[in-house]
């Protein structure tokens, strides 16, 4: 009997429709897996075309190119003597499925379609694919000619089956199936499957990693077995960062852990495990064995191949380990930094430009870029040739080696403080000091001439001169004068992003970074087409509370002492006139709510699916020690008024790193109207009736 089996789980930084690059990374992962003794190699979901192809899945080209890549894999000597499990879309009887294609020695063993599709939040799989609904059923799949010419097969099994090798039995799950209440691994385990595999396209959300780890470990805790999970990593073309975390678990305990954040394009996790440990673990679970005696069997595809060696008794096996989780502050430091690096190198730009105001949000964005520079230098120091090649191309210097994060930051990061007559010297000094400490190329400029010119045009045409409220102007005049300043900054940011390097005699352009946090977007506390309008925004899915904690983390871990004064200063837009040289305007006073309250409103609105009345009902209990029902009602009404008035701004929200499940991103995640009846008359009346009753 076979005992020690060696299996490999891969985390690959695939890119949607980059068939050339995706194939190269798959080959590298197979080479590494084989060199470490693995006999089975599992890759991420839809790894051949990249997970994020979206409506490109409708195109026959995507299917064609996926099969062309598969043919390259099948005919290569690199894939000999190892079971390879790859992901790609497959059209079967004119229905498109999200599939695993499992092959060995130029023969396809099984095409296994996905049973439970991910269709919530950022996922839209039901838009492009159909779930396989025929449990334990296999059909003939007629292979395209380009595959027949390589394999010599005309048809292969297609459906819900498991693989029976000479020494064990393997069953596949695909991503969402692990999260489903009726996961296939339950019935497969009862039917004698000893190794479960899961190919995922799972993205990063703050504080989510533990849920995935717990699910994998619990999958084998009650039923016994080995669980192998592979996942995509990196930015494959949109707002999501796939966070790796490849892992291998046995009998409820983790035995191998992959990294969650890294700049490695290919990471391969290999574990050698004793099948007898699975068998003995299962033997004493009588409830499992009773259920197993009644289970309906799966179709088995026989494979004349063993995952174990004949002398497996002498092979050392892996022992359980303790999973190390990142703190939320570490996640913010690493996840968006890796996402920015992928975006920068794949967009082939020369760096970033950030309007740096001296406040918490733009400072947090600057710290994430600085963290990215740290990651790049660390990767190069550890011998990552891909990162070194990308860094040299970005800075346009063939012999360059990034060794010091501050020096690398100077080359690829430009910060710009855009002062007006309403800006304080304090914020100017804070921005300048932070730029010095992270090493960015820093610009100070004044926008007053541009603002006066624009307002002057309006005055010349209309004969009217708008005034700020403090000088007797109306609220409409006051808002318009603030918005002009904000929008001028956006125009200047793009001008400097395009021409700053040119002015310095350097090639290339810069990506403009935005820095509106998730709470401000939810409330609409931003000017449409101001500096929140940018190419990308690394903090757009992160709350103000988490950003403050992240700033503290940067003070302690990066020794950025300039952040201390930024942390202690009240958040302000600095768009209204100073009073005695001091800032009189603050964000929370402007918004009519605190950032802490905004986070609660956001989670109730999106995660708890609460409308105005339900939110009121929940908050009168949550806040019963600090607010009367009437005060709660007033707060809820104010939030929904402001949210609905400003919802139109979400349609033009800068693409942001997705980190929170209460993001108001209208483009992909939070689908709602942007023209509301902002009186909410029926809903608010229900609240008023409840207040009266209380």
From TrEMBL:
Q: Which InterPro entries match?
A: C-N_Hydrolase, C-N_Hydrolase_sf, Gln-dep_NAD_synthase, NAD/GMP_synthase, NAD_synthase, Rossmann-like_a/b/a_fold
Swiss-Prot/TrEMBL GO biological process terms: 'de novo' NAD+ biosynthetic process from L-tryptophan
Indicate yes or no for the key word Nucleotide-binding.
yes
Q: In which pathway does it act?
A: Cofactor biosynthesis; NAD(+) biosynthesis; NAD(+) from deamido-NAD(+) (L-Gln route): step 1/1
Sorted UniProt keywords: ATP-binding, Ligase, NAD, Nucleotide-binding
- UniProt enzyme class: ligase
Identify the CDD domains for this entry. GAT_Gln-NAD-synth (cd07570), NAD_synthase (cd00553)
GO cellular component annotations, sorted alphabetically?
cytosol
Name listed for the protein in its UniProt record:
Glutamine-dependent NAD(+) synthetase
UniProt organism field: Jacana jacana (Wattled jacana)
């Amino acid at each position: 009997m076979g005992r020690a089996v060696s299996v490999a789980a891969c985390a690959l930084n695939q890119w949607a429709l980059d068939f050339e690059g995706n194939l190269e990374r798959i080959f590298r992962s197979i080479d590494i897996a084989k060199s470490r003794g693995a006999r089975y190699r599992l890759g991420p979901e839809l790894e051949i075309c990249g997970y994020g192809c979206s409506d490109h899945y409708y195109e026959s080209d995507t299917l064609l190119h996926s099969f062309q890549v598969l043919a390259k894999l099948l005919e290569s000597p690199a894939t000999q003597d190892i079971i390879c499990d790859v992901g790609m879309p497959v059209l079967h009887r004119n229905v498109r499925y999200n599939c695993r294609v499992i092959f060995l020695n130029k023969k396809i063993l099984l095409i296994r379609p996905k049973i439970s599709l991910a269709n919530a939040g950022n996922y839209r799989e039901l838009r492009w694919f159909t779930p396989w609904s025929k449990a334990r059923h296999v059909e003939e799949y007629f292979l395209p000619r380009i595959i027949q010419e390589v394999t010599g097969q005309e048809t292969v099994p297609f459906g819900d089956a498991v693989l029976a090798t000479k020494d064990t039995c393997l069953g596949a799950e695909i991503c969402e199936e692990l999260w489903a209440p009726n996961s296939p691994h339950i019935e497969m385990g009862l039917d004698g499957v000893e190794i479960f595999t899961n190919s995922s396209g799972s993205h990063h959300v703050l504080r989510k990693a533990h849920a995935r780890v717990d699910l994998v470990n619990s999958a084998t805790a009650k039923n016994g077995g080995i669980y192998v999970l592979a996942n995509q990593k990196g930015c494959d073309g949109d707002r999501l960062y796939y966070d790796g975390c490849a892992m291998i678990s046995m009998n409820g305990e983790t035995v191998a852990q992959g990294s969650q954040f890294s700049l490695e394009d290919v990471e391969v996790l290999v574990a050698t495990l004793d099948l007898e440990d699975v068998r003995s673990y299962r033997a004493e679970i009588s409830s499992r064995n009773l259920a197993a005696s009644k289970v309906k069997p799966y179709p088995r595809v026989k494979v004349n191949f063993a995952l174990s060696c004949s002398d497996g008794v002498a092979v050392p096996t892996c022992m359980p380990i303790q999973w190390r989780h990142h703190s939320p502050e570490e996640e913010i430091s690493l996840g968006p930094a890796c996402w920015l690096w992928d975006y920068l190198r794949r967009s082939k730009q020369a760096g970033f430009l950030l309007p740096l105001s001296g406040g918490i949000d733009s400072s947090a964005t600057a710290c994430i870029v600085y963290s990215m520079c740290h990651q790049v230098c660390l990767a190069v120091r550890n011998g990552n040739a891909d990162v070194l090649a990308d860094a040299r191309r970005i800075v346009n210097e063939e012999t360059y080696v990034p060794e010091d994060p501050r020096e690398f930051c100077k080359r690829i990061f430009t910060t710009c403080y855009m002062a007006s007559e309403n800006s304080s010297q304090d914020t100017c000094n804070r921005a300048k000091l932070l730029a010095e400490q992270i090493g960015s190329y820093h610009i100070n400029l004044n926008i007053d001439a541009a603002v006066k010119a624009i307002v002057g045009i309006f005055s010349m045409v209309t004969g009217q001169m708008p005034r700020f409220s403090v000088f007797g102007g109306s609220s409409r005049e006051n808002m318009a004068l603030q918005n002009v300043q904000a929008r001028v900054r956006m125009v200047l940011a793009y001008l400097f992003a395009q021409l700053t390097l040119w002015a310095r005699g350097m090639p290339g352009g810069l990506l403009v970074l935005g820095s509106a946090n998730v709470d401000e977007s939810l409330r609409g506390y931003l000017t449409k087409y101001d500096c929140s309008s940018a190419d990308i925004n690394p903090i757009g899915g992160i709350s103000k509370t988490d950003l403050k904690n992240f700033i503290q983390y940067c003070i302690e871990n990066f020794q950025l002492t300039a952040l201390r004064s930024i942390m202690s200063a009240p958040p302000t837009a600095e768009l209204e006139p100073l009073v005695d040289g001091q800032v009189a305007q603050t964000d929370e006073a402007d918004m009519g709510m605190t950032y802490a309250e905004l986070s609660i409103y956001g989670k109730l609105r999106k995660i708890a699916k609460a409308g105005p009345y339900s939110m009121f009902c929940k908050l009168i209990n949550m806040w019963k020690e600090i607010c009367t029902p009437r005060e709660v009602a007033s707060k809820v009404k104010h939030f929904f008024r402001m949210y609905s008035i400003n919802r139109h701004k979400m349609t033009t929200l800068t693409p942001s790193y997705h980190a929170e499940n209460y993001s108001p991103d209208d483009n992909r995640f939070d689908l709602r109207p942007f023209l509301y009846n902002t009186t909410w008359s029926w809903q608010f009346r229900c609240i008023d009736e409840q207040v009266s009753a209380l």
